[in-house]
């Protein structure tokens, strides 16, 4: 598989650009400054601790990009690094899908920066990469992130029990997705024009209740 070209995407003062090795110092500073804000949502390794190593993280992201399976971006506002967005698990052919993950600094949360970045990345994947489906999985407790998919109209698809290892344990996630046919004129344009379906991202009461209850595990 040929490496995917990582573009630079812009809307107003928000820029998504390819992550670079020289971003390590600035990225580490933002991560450390926002430790309390981000720790509860950080992916972790089972049985391992959490260590911020921006250089190693960037090397890993760029390796996935070279293999054609990822588009790692940083999010900038007026030229200042304020977060990351990663398009991962890129698959072509009969599946033609990818997953989006993201974070932003607490100081810029709630300003529309994250939905703008997610919309830019999704539109690029649909229009330029010709992917068919984009997915975002979010912990039930992560209300700021849930607001992103609500704003953009990502459709709720279901509960994934103990899906990703986050902050030291296996955590449930709600899954949301869009397919290209749902947004023929683009995610960003639909949002800006106020045409997002109001209930697309609505989580069922049953799944909310299930996520609030511990999963019964088999006796050992």
Automatic annotation (TrEMBL):
GO annotation, cellular component aspect: cytoplasm
Domain of life: Bacteria
Domain (N-acetyltransferase) ranges: 14-181
InterPro entries: Acyl_CoA_acyltransferase, GNAT_dom, Ribosomal_N-acetyltransferase
Gene3D superfamilies from the UniProt entry: 3.40.630.30
One Pfam family named in its UniProt record: Acetyltransf_3
Entry GO MF terms: protein N-terminal-serine acetyltransferase activity; protein-N-terminal-alanine acetyltransferase activity
PANTHER family xrefs: ACETYLTRANSFERASE, RIBOSOMAL-PROTEIN-SERINE ACETYLTRANSFERASE
Name of the molecule in the record: N-acetyltransferase GCN5
């Amino acid at each position: 598989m040929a490496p995917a070209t990582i573009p630079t995407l812009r809307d107003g003062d928000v820029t998504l650009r390819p992550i670079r090795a020289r971003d390590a110092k600035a990225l580490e500073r933002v991560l450390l400054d926002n430790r309390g804000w981000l720790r509860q949502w950080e992916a972790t390794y089972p049985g391992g601790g959490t260590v911020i190593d921006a250089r190693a993280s960037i090397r890993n992201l760029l390796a996935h990009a070279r293999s054609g399976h990822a588009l790692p971006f940083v999010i900038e506002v007026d030229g200042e690094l304020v977060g990351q967005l990663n398009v991962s698990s890129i698959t072509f052919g009969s599946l033609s899908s990818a997953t989006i993950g993201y974070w932003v600094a607490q100081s810029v949360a709630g300003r529309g920066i994250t939905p703008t970045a997610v919309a830019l990345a999704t539109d690029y994947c649909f229009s330029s990469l010709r992917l068919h489906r984009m997915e975002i999985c979010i912990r039930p407790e992560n209300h700021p992130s849930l607001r992103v998919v609500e704003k953009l109209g990502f459709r709720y698809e279901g509960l994934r029990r103990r899906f990703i290892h986050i902050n030291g344990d296996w955590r449930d996630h709600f899954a949301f997705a869009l397919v290209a046919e749902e947004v023929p004129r683009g995610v960003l344009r639909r949002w800006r024009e106020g045409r997002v379906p109001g209930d697309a991202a609505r989580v069922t009461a049953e799944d909310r209740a299930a996520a609030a209850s511990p999963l019964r595990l088999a006796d050992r």
